[in-house]
Amino acid sequence: MKLETLPPIVWEPALVDAAKKICKENGPTGRTSHIGLDGSKPRDRVNAKVIGNVAESFAFGERTGEGYITKMYVDDGVQSRGNRANLVDPRFKATGMAYCKHRDFGGMLVIVLAAGVNEPWSNQDIVSRRARPGNV
């Protein structure tokens, strides 16, 4: 089976801020919710310059960055495979991430993805997303 290479994705500080916000709310309290303490949803936490679809993925309790990403990609025990779907969705052109300590699981990684922004990218760091056979 041939896997297509995904387009590059851009690091977006506004999405980093959104990831930090939910991480800071969930980590110390042991929560695992995508709804903020103020009732905000992932779309609400990104600033106005982000446009299009927004997705948020969580992983808990790993020891390395590679472990967190692998956990999201494999998405074991999640029937919808929503984290995997977010990571490989070619509609998402920008990302931001945050890590925090989590009361119940040791650590938590949050990835926020968005389709685009209203203005030129605030940071031109491109992150490559390549699907490779055998990497799960």
Write up what this structure looks like.
There is one protein chain. The protein is of the alpha+beta class. 26% of the residues lie in helices and 27% in strands. It contains four helices and five strands. A five-stranded mixed β-sheet has the order 2-4-3-1-5. Strand 3 and strand 4 form a beta hairpin. The radius of gyration is 15 Å and the shape is globular. The model is unreliable at 130-136 (pLDDT under 50).
What are its keywords?
136 residues; alpha+beta; five-stranded mixed β-sheet; 27% strand
Give the helix/strand layout:
Elements: E1 9-11, H1 13-26, H2 42-45, E2 50-60, H3 65-74, H4 82-88, E3 94-102, E4 106-117, E5 126-127
Parallel strand pairs: 1-3
Antiparallel strand pairs: 1-5, 2-4, 3-4
Give the helix tally.
4
| DSSP E strands, number | 5
Work out the helicity level. 25-40%
* Uncertain residue ranges: 130-136
The major β-sheet equals: 5 strands, mixed
- The proportion of strand residues reads 25-35%
**H/E series, N to C?**
EHHEHHEEE
Radius of gyration of CA atoms, rounded to a whole number: 15 Å
Order of neighbouring strands in the sheet with most strands = 2-4-3-1-5
Distance between the termini: 14 Å
Average of pLDDT: 85
Global outline? globular
